[in-house]
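Hi support team,

I'm filing this because I wasn't sure whether my run with flavin mononucleotide finished correctly. The job status page said complete, but I'd like someone to confirm that the output block is well-formed before I use it downstream. Pasting the exact inputs I used:
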Amino acid sequence: MFTDKSTQLLYPKEEVPGHDVDDITQTNLFNVMLNRRSQRKFQNKEVEEWKLDMIFAAADTAPTAGGFQGFEIYHIKNEGSRKRLVEAANNQPYVNAPAVLVFCMNPKRVKLNFTSETIIKFSQQDATLAAAYSQLAAHALGLSSIWIGMFDEKKIMEILGTDLSPSSILCLGYPVKMLLPKPKRNLKDLIHEI
Ligand SMILES: Cc1cc2nc3c(=O)[nH]c(=O)nc-3n(C[C@H](O)[C@H](O)[C@H](O)COP(=O)(O)O)c2cc1C
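And here is everything the job wrote out:
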C-alpha cells in the first residue's frame, strides 16, 4: 500500500472488487522488470482510476535531485487533446491510448544553488525517473505501455497549456496480447570495469 503524506490516504483509495491489492503490491520487482515489454496495441478498455492512483503514487516514490520533485505529470483525459498529441508526436497513432501521461520537467521546483544548466539537467532526470517508475508500476498492475520520446516539444506545451518542457509521454492500456521481452545485448558488453 502507498500512503499519501499530505492526506494520509492509502492507495488505492477505494475498495477494489475482485482484486487482492496486497497481492499486486507484493509483486516481485525482478519479475516485473524482466517481463515488461513495450506495447503499441491496446484494448478499447479504460484503465481503472485506482490503478492510475497507484501509478501516480509509484511515480512519487522515485528519487529526485535534492528531494525537490522537479517534475509534473499531466494526465490527458480529454479525447481531443489526446488526438492532438498524436499529431505532435510525429503522428504515432498509439499515442491516443486509454491512459496518457505526459511527464514534464519543472526546474523551478529544484531549489539548489547550481547553474541553471545543472538544474535543468536535474529536472530532466527527475521527470525521466518518475516516468520509469510509473512504467514499471503499470506493468505490475497488469497494464502495458509505450514510452514516447519522439515529439515536438513546443506543440506538446501548447496542447498542455504549460511553459514546462515535456520529457516523455507514457501511453498505457490493457494489451491486446502479452508480448515476450525483447532480446537484449549480452550483459558483459554493457558493463565497463575500469
Ligand atoms: C527515450 C526513449 C524514447 C522512445 N521513444 C519512442 C517513440 O517515440 N515511439 C515509440 O514507438 N517507442 C519509443 N520508445 C520505446 C522503445 O522503442 C522501446 O522501449 C524499445 O524498442 C525496447 O523495447 P522494450 O521496451 O519492449 O524493451 C522509446 C523508448 C525510450 C526509452
